[in-house]
Amino acid sequence: MTAPTQQRNPWVMLALFLGLVSVVALVGSLSTMATPDVYSQFEAPSWALRGAWFGPLWTVSYVVLALAGWAYWRTDGETQGFALYGIGLLFNLLWAPLFFAGGSVRLACVDIVLLDFFVIMTVGLFCRRSRTAALLLLLYFGWLCYTTALNIAIIALNDIT
């Protein structure tokens, strides 16, 4: 049986959420470093950010994601909310390796659409206990929507089969 939230140190838990999300970020970062020229090889839409912007924007989105999980935890969040949060982390973990290192832009697109779905489902569950957690996830979701649209545009513009 786990201790109630009040008996656990909230700063240790914040560090755990940041650490967990950092592992996901590290996997994504390593996969883009392994093949740094993949993104530049694609024809991109006019609204696409230059490659240098992605690192800082993903970093901010990962911090927001960790804060959302921590804010939900502080409300003694339900297991179902954490399960969806974890599934979302798994799909996030897979996206960059699929897109960059795996060379499977279409499979990465399927992955990120599934990630979008699970994040929206998680927002719904988080909102029941913490509007702050839900709003933080919505910020993260906004970035995911941009990334999803970019993934789709790259497929369309480059006639990827």
Write the layout of secondary structure elements.
Elements: H1 10-34, H2 38-41, H3 54-73, H4 79-101, H5 105-129, H6 131-157
Helix pairs in contact: 1-3, 1-4, 3-6, 4-5, 5-6
Q: How would you sum up this structure, described in words?
A:
By secondary structure, this protein is mainly α. Helix content is 77%, strand content 0%. The protein is built from 6 helices and no strands. It has helices spanning 10-34, 38-41, 54-73, 79-101, 105-129, 131-157.
Radius of gyration of CA atoms, rounded to a whole number? 17 Å
End-to-end gap: 50 Å
Quick one: how many beta strands? Answer: 0
Task: Specify the number of helices.
Answer: 6
Largest sheet: none
Order of helices and strands: HHHHHH
Shape designation: elongated
Strand fraction equals under 5%
Query: Strand pairing plus helix content: what structural class?
Result: mainly alpha
Mean pLDDT over the full residue set: 93
- Percent range for helical residues? over 70%
Unreliable parts: none
